[in-house]
Design a protein that fits this description.
The protein is α+β, with helices and mostly antiparallel strands. It has helices at about 1-10, 10-35, 175-200, 205-230, 240-260, 265-290, 305-320, 330-355, 365-375, 380-395; strands at about 45, 50-55, 60-65, 75-80, 90-100, 100-105, 110-115, 125-135, 140-150, 160-165.
Length: about 400
């Protein structure tokens, strides 16, 4: 008992910090994920559908679920959504997200709505599609025809939701209401703190590490919120919502190695992380400027190569965390270092999932179908773990070095 008591006193500040954050996150989840969630009675997930992919050579692939694939910009995708008579309701809509395409919805060959025809070059990400459903369509079907502007399915197509008008704006966060609240706060907070640290970069000793930590938190949160469609809840600008995940991704593969360079004592590893991260940070700014200017550049050029580059940089950061050299660690460093390693692994899994999801269909084994639909994104835990890690590093005076 005396040993346990001494150990508690030794790490009291760290234990209290973790307990406070855990309690806070639990309360947030309970308030927004249980009490404040989108009522299940207000939406219906449409899992019954038929998807036809017409290829340029005249061949067709037919799928009976939302797990499908296509392989060319010349393919034409036709989705059939049958609506049961018992679902009949006025002022309802079918809602889903789909990457850069021309999308037209029909009922009895009559055009209901279209998206993407007046699209500008900046709209390279996910379109938020809301299709009004006529009352007489129940007992029949809604047909959606998609002309893709990209040659690959960039991520798994998630099943659409049938919702009433007035609640349809919430469909991107269904099942993730608590995460949306936490991520929104983290996104804004990390951006503001990143700017503050950037001004102090040359004058305060921990500002350099803090700048890249906040850039890492900001980028990984923005990447996930953009990929999941959550950004549509923050802004009405479709261009910002669509490009958010790419800006986050490009910033992530520079901020990850730059932040990790502060966590290793191995000279060659530190130099590799700093040099590669600095080069990629320049690439990030060049791409952002080219995107803003009327240069014709968009982030989907060589997308798979850039996604593979992100995997390489996050894996490099992972290795530097696994083998940090002879640097002595406090208990806080060891716990948070383990957390960061787990987070890096989940980040790599998420990017691999996005890449392979373009090929995984209902004809693949159930395990791979589950993999395509899973959410491995390290944004679920990464920001809080990194923030605690940084606070612990800067508050080392509160911790006793391990003997």
């Amino acid at each position: 008992m005396s040993y346990i008591s001494m150990s508690f006193r030794k790490h009291q500040a760290f234990i209290l910090l973790v307990a406070a954050l855990t309690t806070g996150l639990f309360l947030l989840y309970f308030i927004f994920g249980v009490i404040g969630r989108v009522p299940t009675s207000s939406y219906r997930e449409l899992t019954d559908m038929v998807i036809e992919v017409q290829h340029k050579d005249g061949t067709r692939d037919i799928y009976a679920s939302h797990l499908f694939s296509y392989s060319s910009e010349d393919d034409v995708i036709t989705m059939h959504f049958p609506l049961d008579k018992s679902w009949k309701s006025e002022n309802s809509s079918i809602n889903f997200l789909f990457y850069n395409s021309i999308i037209k919805a029909y009922y009895n060959d009559k055009l209901l709505i279209s998206y993407g025809e007046d699209i500008d070059r900046n709209m390279v990400g996910k379109l938020k599609v809301t299709i009004p459903v006529p009352t007489k369509a129940y007992g029949n079907e809604i047909v959606v025809v998609i002309d893709p502007h990209t040659g690959i399915l960039e991520d798994t197509f998630r099943a659409p939701y049938l919702m009433a008008f007035g609640t349809e704006q919430f469909f991107p966060i269904i099942g993730q209401e608590a995460f949306y609240t936490v991520f929104s706060v983290i996104l804004i907070f990390s951006f503001l703190v990143m700017i503050v640290f950037a001004f102090l970069y040359r004058t305060v000793h921990f500002a350099k590490e803090g700048t890249w930590l906040m850039a890492l938190i900001f980028s990984i949160t923005l990447w996930y919120m953009g990929n999941s469609g959550m950004v549509y809840m923050l802004t009405s600008s479709e261009n910002i919502s669509a490009v958010a995940e790419y800006i986050g991704m490009y910033l992530l593969f520079s901020s990850a190695p730059l932040y990790s360079s502060f966590e290793t004592e191995r000279p060659l590893v530190k130099k590799y992380l700093k040099v590669s991260g600095s080069i990629l940070f320049v690439v990030f700014w060049v791409c952002l400027v080219l995107y803003i200017l009327p240069s014709g550049f968009n982030y989907v050029w060589h997308l798979r190569f850039m996604q593979a580059l992100q995997i390489v940089m996050v894996f490099s950061a992972l290795l530097s965390l696994l083998f940090p050299g002879k640097k002595r660690k406090t208990a806080a460093d060891q716990v948070m270092g383990s957390g960061l390693i787990g987070v890096a692994l989940f980040g790599i899994l998420e990017q691999i999932r996005i890449i392979v999801a373009a090929q995984i269909t209902e004809n693949w084994p159930p395990l791979l179908q589950w993999f395509a639909k899973a959410h491995f994104n390290c944004a679920h835990s990464h920001p809080c773990l990194n923030l605690v890690h940084f606070l612990c590093n800067q508050g080392k005076g509160y911790f006793t070095e391990e003997s």
